[in-house]
Amino acid sequence: MTALPESERSANAAARAEILARIRSALHDVPADEQPADVVVARHYLRSSALDRAAQVDLFVERVEDYRAIVHRIAAIELPVAVASAIRQRGARRIVVPAALPPEWQPADADLLLDTGELTAANLDGTDGVITGCAVGIAETGTIVLDAGPTQGRRMLTLVPDYHLCVVFADQVVGTVPEAVARLDGTQPTTFISGPSATSDIELSRVEGVHGPRTLEVLLVE
Known about the structure:
Blueprint: H1 6-26, H2 53-66, E1 70-74, H3 79-90, E2 94-98, E3 111-115, H4 121-125, E4 129-132, E5 136-138, E6 143-146, E7 163-169, E8 173-174, H5 177-183, E9 191-193, E10 198-200, E11 206-208, E12 215-221
Parallel strand pairs: 1-12, 2-3, 2-4, 4-7, 5-8, 7-12
Antiparallel strand pairs: 5-6, 6-9, 10-11
């Protein structure tokens, strides 16, 4: 976010001071005990889900698919084969991966680019896709959250390539947004992904791939 020029900050501060001064002036003849007191608003947020683990995972899959993402439910032992199969069926050859991505997640028949921080946006734009893990999945919203963890890498990796293959483990899925936020430390750059990147103009013409990958494929490991 761009900081406001000093002149604008001063003008805003002056306007705020004037508004508060007018309020104080309007209340000058009202006894202090009759002036409006601060209102405490009760905030009863839903912080946890009533669904059990299996139901949360089912809902997560349903919501992710609603966003036009591709979801495969697999067992842990199937993960290496599932990754290689997804990349092969995609026809992708040049794949970028975070430097700490587990070796078993790295397809042997692909041209892998390990990112150690030196790849530029132009480098990433020349790849066929990216493979990452995630920090948490949210069942209620069908959202995948990335926080630049070891299996996720830099935020740029999942914003530039046109294809994102994301590994999500069932125990990473929570019911609600507050539960997801509680799992994040809040100090890392965080990306919330709800399906492939898409936007619509005023006529509701959907365009995909504007702000990120056009194709999101999820391997849900149970």
